[in-house]
């Protein structure tokens, strides 16, 4: 099959899948949906203090071929391979409810967050928060973000908080793990597409992993 034909088919199928992504990947739409998420996170954490958690956020690196040009080095991450950052939020069951992608691998997670639509969105509602690891800042506004106490952790209270926090937040790591397991061949090698098209391919993978 000619390379041009494969190129056209891949782009066409990917665009069709991405066009319906909002039907699958979306934030809780009703108070009942949100309540189910918060109750679920309280169960994961094994503490009612996490009964207002509305999601867990993290980022992962999607391996790409090193882009040519003067900006190619910007895509080299701290693990020394070229990548594009994928930021995602999942619910208590590991279902992705928000995704954002496109920044070079060398960019810090906190900067990606500040430029994402989620950062200034209306989610989560007042009184709720999103769980994040220590790579993110602990925020109250514009996006309520709860992170663990930084090391060295002092005091029994802080240790217990971090334990409950970790139990709830780790669902996002399991969600990424399930996606990488399902698409092992794609995540273990660089994508054979132009780096500007990688976000579209990754969004399609999110939908196919549902």
Task: Record the SSE blueprint.
Elements: H1 3-18, H2 31-45, E1 53-63, E2 83-90, E3 96-104, H3 109-114, E4 129-131, E5 145-146, H4 156-182, H5 184-187, H6 198-208
Parallel strand pairs: 1-4, 4-5
Antiparallel strand pairs: 1-2, 2-3
Domain DDE Tnp4: 57-206
Subcellular location: Nucleus
Keywords: Hydrolase, Metal-binding, Nuclease, Nucleus
Q: Strand tally, please?
A: 5
C-alpha Rg (nearest Å): 18 Å
Q: What is the straight-line distance between the termini? A: 30 Å
Alpha plus pi helix count: 6
The average pLDDT score comes to 88
How do the helices and strands follow one another from N- to C-terminus? HHEEEHEEHHH
Global geometry: globular
List keywords for this structure.
five-stranded mixed sheet, 6 helices
Short description:
The protein has 210 residues and is an alpha/beta fold. Helix content is 38%, strand content 16%. The protein has helices at residues 3-18, 31-45, 109-114, 156-182, 184-187, 198-208; strands at 53-63, 83-90, 96-104, 129-131, 145-146.
Overview of the molecule:
With 210 residues, this protein is an alpha/beta fold. It is built from six helices and five strands, in the order H-H-E-E-E-H-E-E-H-H-H. It has helices at 3-18, 31-45, 109-114, 156-182, 184-187, 198-208, and strands spanning 53-63, 83-90, 96-104, 129-131, 145-146. It has a five-stranded mixed β-sheet with strand order 3-2-1-4-5. It is globular and about 60 Å long. The model has no long low-confidence stretch (mean pLDDT 88). It is found in: Nucleus.
């Amino acid at each position: 099959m000619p390379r041009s034909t494969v190129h056209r088919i891949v782009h066409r199928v990917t665009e069709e899948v991405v066009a319906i992504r909002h039907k699958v990947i979306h934030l809780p739409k009703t108070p009942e949906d949100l309540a189910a998420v918060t109750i679920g996170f309280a169960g994961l954490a094994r503490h009612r203090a996490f009964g207002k958690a509305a999601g867990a956020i993290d980022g992962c690196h999607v391996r790409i071929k090193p882009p040519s040009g003067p900006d190619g080095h910007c895509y080299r991450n701290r693990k020394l391979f070229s990548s594009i950052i994928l930021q995602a939020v999942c619910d208590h069951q590991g279902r992705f409810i928000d995704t954002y992608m496109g920044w070079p691998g060398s960019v810090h997670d906190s900067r990606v967050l500040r430029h994402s639509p989620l950062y200034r969105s209306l989610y989560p509602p007042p009184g709720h928060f999103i769980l994040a690891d220590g790579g993110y800042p602990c925020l109250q506004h514009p996006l309520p973000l709860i992170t663990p106490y930084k090391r060295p952790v002092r005091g029994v209270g802080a240790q217990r908080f971090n334990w409950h926090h970790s139990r709830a937040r780790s669902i996002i790591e399991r969600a990424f793990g399930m996606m990488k397991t399902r698409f092992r061949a794609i995540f273990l090698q660089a994508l054979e597409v132009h780096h500007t098209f990688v976000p579209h391919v990754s969004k399609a993978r999110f939908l196919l992993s549902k």
